[in-house]
Amino acid sequence: MRITKTGNAFFAFIALALLASCTSISPFSAKAYEQATSLKAEALIIMDKATQPFSDNKQTAEALQLNLEKAYEYAKGIPKNKDITDQWAIIKDPARNSLGGFLKRWEKDQTLSKGFIQEAKGLVSDGFDSIIELESGKRKPSESQK
Question: 28 near 141, Cβ under 8 Å?
Answer without folding.
Answer: yes
